[in-house]
Amino acid sequence: APVAAPAWLETLNPEQREAVTATEGPVLVLSGAGTGKTRVLTTRLAYILATCRVRPWQVLAVTFTNKAAREMRERATSLIGPDAEQVWLGTFHSLGVRLLRRHGALVGLRPGFTILDSDDQQRLLKQIMDAERLDLKRWQPQVALSLLQRWKDRGWLPEAVPADDPSRSFAEGRLLDLYRQYQDRLMVVNAADFGDLLLHCLTLLTRNPQVLAEVSGQFRYILVDEYQDTNVAQYLWLRLLARAHGNLCCVGDDDQSIYSWRGAAVGNILRFEEDFPGATLVRLESNYRSTSTILAAASGLIRHNQGRLGKELRSGLDTQELGPPIKVWGVWDGAEEARRVVDEIEARQRAGDALGGMAILVRVGFQTREFEERLIVTGTPYRVIGGPRFYERQEIRDAVAYLRLAVQPDDSLAFERVVNVPRRGLGEATLQILNRVARLERISLQEAARRVIETDEVRAAARNKLRAFLADLSRWRALGDGLDPSSLCATILDESGYVDMWRKDRAPDAEGRVENLKELVGALKEFDTLEGFLEHVSLVMDNEARAGEQAVTLMTLHAAKGLEFDTVFLPGWEEDIFPHRRALEESGAEGLEEERRLAYVGLTRARRRVYISFAASRRVFADWRSCLPSRFLDELPPETVERESASGVYGSGAQGHMDAPGGWGRVQQSPGWGRSSRREAATFQVGQRVVHDSFGVGDVLDVAGDRLEIVFEGGAVRKVMASFVKAMG
Ligand code: ATP
Ligand code: MG
Predict the structure, then answer these.
(1) Residue 644, pLDDT score
(2) Overall pTM surpassing 0.90 (yes/no)
């Protein structure tokens, strides 16, 4: 029988307590950000262990990341002690592995099976496609692999793929056959890929009733966090395990579904009530994380989405304050944005805020670079979560290796790194010979190569390729005398085929790598000499925050799910970056809604303060582009924001807008950036002669709210922000 309610239940509100104590039968908690879903789940875990007669290993809890699993375990341990250590707690993948380590033999896996990373998967599939004599230029293994993964996300083994599935037509209609062969190969080499970790479990449980009985009998209680981002295979897995007892508690927020590109299916939420009739539905409406201003802003934004289950947030604490308004900064460019953000971080730190409570959340990985540079200049410790720091990324290290060779021909480490990247047919065998010569003669690899090509030490084919590569290196080196570092870098990346290699790569992260390379070329503009830049890089590499040290967090919005910070900076709110162009191009209105959910996730990470910024121009691959403020800015309720430009406050919803004297921020900024509110200073007319801060003199072609189209002297037509333009004469 249940024992007396533990004291920690008292800290919950009545709805939360209901979700915690309704231990028997299906429960679905569907609630907005910061309403305590994760806290409910953790408390429920502790409650079950404290009051129900089960052993810890009879409870299964699923989180979205390993980090979240660690946090949940720590919290639960603090509530009920070491019993929490033995709970089956982890991500779907880690739990799948655990089950397969135990029962894998039944699906043909042998002890010690390996788990393939995406490189291995691709290599395997490529071998199969090669053997099938498919034209790999036309049918890329990477694309084939991602199609197979989508099938696996849906829980489809080869025999289950529907006859009319459009992906089947890939590779001359042979994708399904490739899928079969791929699965066969995996079995032969005793390996599983990530998708298999779940698929094999599904097969195991459906084909072996006694195992299903045993496993589902073991897990008497099942808990799932971030339920909105589960895919179909994961859902089927949960349903199988919970079917016998129905003690399944899922918590989620449809407004935070941001992984549809990885096969997540919001439909799982709707299905839940069908599959588990009589489920208790709990809605938590009190938010305990953020100030009411932040809540109003987030709610106002997400209200623009059509496909919602609909819910409102209100403050959960009587004492919850209005808090400061959301600061929206219009800045000139990325450098100014980084400067302002880091200045503010320092100011907050001086005011007593901890660095660990501050985060910069970006939409795309390359955006971290400028912030990293600035944080390094100011000596502010920082961490990049969910990815390497900018200069530690593979593509940046490769590019830097090319640059090092242009400065320093004897740099053998750099030579070795790029001699066969992209592939030039200079493989291990050649490199071994070069290394041997270099060692014996006590010379650098490049010098060794110069000598070897005059001999017959390597095959003629490799010799020719080596000769061509050496000629490239000499040419780039000579170019370095005349070209500025940025142009030199662009030339090298282009002529070496390095950028092209990533452009052609269809792996999901390849596009991000191309963006990072562009960012690098842009960053080089700030240096007069290549040597200066390389020195900078080596210093940058030495700035890792030490374990346990207070540090600012930098990460993508996707990685920030479920986390919270006192202060959140959301930079780069510009069209094309956020909402991201690709999301709109590929998924249209759906894509826009997912971007908006991502913005909602970003806003609701903050407890007290949010700063949003957008730049008027960005450097893209060494060119300046003018940018338009994100449409999401217009969707924030005006009373929640305070807009400010470099030259002072020029408008806030509450006070109306003030004209600040002088500077580029002065006349044309209107509180709502034109779209939703009246323009108060529309001073431009078609045909008028104007001067733009960076593009110079031109004539106005078109006026659209706060945006102008201008034909500049020289003929370039550009869309610009009216606020960066002054009338002439
Ligand atoms: P997200 O959707 O972002 O994952 P969530 O719904 O999981 O959010 P939690 O992270 O569990 O929300 O809770 C948000 C914050 O509110 C946490 O700091 C948590 O400790 C606090 N909190 C939750 N419930 C209460 C409560 N009843 N009293 C006081 N604080 C609470
Ligand atoms: Mg949560």
Answers:
(1) 82
(2) no
